[in-house]
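hey so u asked for the seq, here:
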Amino acid sequence: MTDTRSRQADALIEGLQRDAGGRLTVFLGAAPGVGKTYSMLTRAQEQLRRGVDLAVGVVETHGRADTEALLQGLPLVERRQVAYRERLLHEMDLDAIVQRRPALVLVDELAHRNAPGSRHERRWQDVMELLDAGIDVWTTVNIQHLESLNDVVLRITGIRVSETVPDGVLDRLHDIVLVDLPPRELIARLQQGKVYVPEQASQALQSYFTTANLTALRELAMQEAADRVDSSLREVRAAGGEGALPLRRRVLVAIDGGGQSEYLVRVARRIAERRDAPWTVVTVQRRRADEATQREIDSAFALARRLGADTEVLQGSSVADALLDHAAHNNVSTLVLGRTRERPLARMLNRTLTQQLIQHGAHYEITIISTPRARARARRDRLLTPAPGRAPELAQAVLACTLACLVAWFAERWVGMADLSMVFIVAVVLVAARTRASAAVLAASLCFLAYNFLFIAPRFTFAISARQGVITVFLFLAAALVAGRLASRLRTQVIALRASNRHANARQQLGRKLSSAASNEAVADAGRQALEQALDAPAWLRIGTDVTASGSAVPGDTDLAAADWSQRHGQPSGRYTDTLAGAQWWCLPLLDGDARCIGVAALQFPPALARLAPEQRQLAMAMVDDIAQAALRTRLVAELEQAHVSNETERLRSALLSSVSHDLRSPLAAMIGSADSLASYGQAMDAVDRRALLDTIMLEGERLDRYIQNLLDMTRLGHDGLKINRDWIGVDELVGSAARRLQRYQPEVKLQLDIPASLAPIWVHPALVEQALFNVLENAAKFSPATAPVTVSARLHSRDLVIDVLDRGPGIPADERARIFDMFYSVERGDRGRHGTGLGLAICQGMVGAHGGSVQALAGEDGRGTLIRITLPLLTPAGHPDALDA
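ran it, structure tokens below
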């Protein structure tokens, strides 16, 4: 039941993803002339009569009167003109269509190649952009233009079709219309001149449009349409919870760049499609491939990606082990590979790739594809035409053998060395350590022949006089081959480890730089520096609105257009791609975890570099992914910080409202109660009671006025706008006023005052300092036990007046004492844990600080309670005889 629901959910998700953009309808035909465009225009006329907003992006009539008549009345989007080799070519105006945004657009000839200089190389890429823009597309295509059928069509017709469409485009298919015409009727149309002009029709009838060819192509078209309908039916049944779909096991295709890679990719596409399975194309890199081999692998990888496959480069000294290890970790059920060349020795030792896979991969289905190229011809080509890059290695083998002969002659003549085989073995090992296995085998063979010819009796002949000599030279050959093989394998592993180490170091350095980046600008700058250092190429990054570039290396208009396209569509563009390939920069999108593009990175490699090595491409993509994740991290951190600030602001607002409402309502309640008593019972009261109520109203009104004034003063403190009106006041009067005010509101509080009478008056703002002292006393009274008094003492210390307020409460933790003067801060333990919002001490610090003083929270006597120390500088007005320098 769980599996059924999971499959149903997957089918629903796939349907939603496919329907997220525009809907694609393909009119599929077996050959030109079957009436695809005519059928599409006929249905378009019906849609227009129904009121559908449609437009004609491009339709090729080829001079057919019937087709041109159907175009009448359909809204046309003017094509744009492209100058190419002194000619004006008319191409579909993609931007105009996107700007007009019709509900449906007609795009004829899906496999068409656009004029050079267009945004996309192929028309099917234009169609994909229209679908991504949410516009429905009707298009036409012939079966021979499907990429995976390219080799099949070649075998049927003998003609290689150059303009192809990746099968992955049809994965966006919403509907398929098979436009069918029997071969005899199509040939009759050709003969009547309804498809091509008479000269072209005559030539086509003799080559391409034969009855056998048309019948085979018609069968392919029907099979493709049936497969698409069957796939759609499976999805519909799965979405409805009906039936069961087979487990999707991955198909793994191995290529080696030996001349059959693209053929294997196309065949594997058909295999994976029939099985409704995902597929991956891999190559095992044991050593650095030569240019021709690497070019073929790159081309095959590009083809595989267009056909909807994943691609990956595996590292390992054994092809079979690398393939089986990858298959074991990626849910692979089928291995597809080409027929390998069987060397006699390898076949005898069961060491061919096919034999190794069969021996160690018993639970896999292994499919061996026969290559069209004859095995004998391939071997002859390899012998007669050495691959580029191998000639220097072969020269090294010859040179090593020559030097070994000279060293052996010198050792035999001047040193008296009897066993000279070790000299030649050392030469073979040195060659194997610097070259590939083929050069090592050549060195072993040459050394074997030279050793036999020059140093085994009878000399200067390949004959061997003694039986022991025969055993010696053949043991030497075996030892040389084994040593060369081991040295070559070790060299391959060292090269792979060096490459992996370089990549790891580059990403590690990038990670260190990104770890300290706190903004998009810092991430972009760190990423640019790391990319330039690792890839030795100028880099340009844009994350959001932050752009960073290296000196004068700035992308041009075409490059910026490619970067914009990559950021909009989340796909690479520019150089080394099929989109805006005329750009000089290679643009890579920065994708977050949800495949949304948050920026773009661009690299400019030298013009002479026609292609990127796989390790360079992989390193660049990996580093770009790291940069994208770092940018995502900074964005998430900023969002979290913003959320924290919002929460803190809300908490402070609530605390302020709570504090203000409490302190405002208390005097207001007293004033309202006294006024109500006077209004209701004033006539019955004597003069003493009425006077008491009036005094209460006056005192509480003054209290309310002072509190509001304190709030206003605190606001001005925060903006440096508080005006200090200083005056002389005695210390005992200042402390006594604050104490009496406290006891008026809290009669039960006990105060113990220690104010020496010898203290001279101080020059301060009396109301502000009294308010500050009152806030400290009120805070101490809240937490001091009822039986323990709050002690207030004052003394002179140097040129400062120090006032200490000591309570006997639970105290404040040492690590939080400095923070209790922050606005609205409340400690979780100690003196601030039960009451208050933290506004009183903040006001106290602000008012004392405005006088140039300070407020500290210290531990009480014997570690009990809290000591709040207020320090005020002893200042005098200017011109006073006792004035001190402030």
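The first strand starts at residue 24 and ends at 29. The longest helix spans residues 614-681.
lmk if thats what u needed
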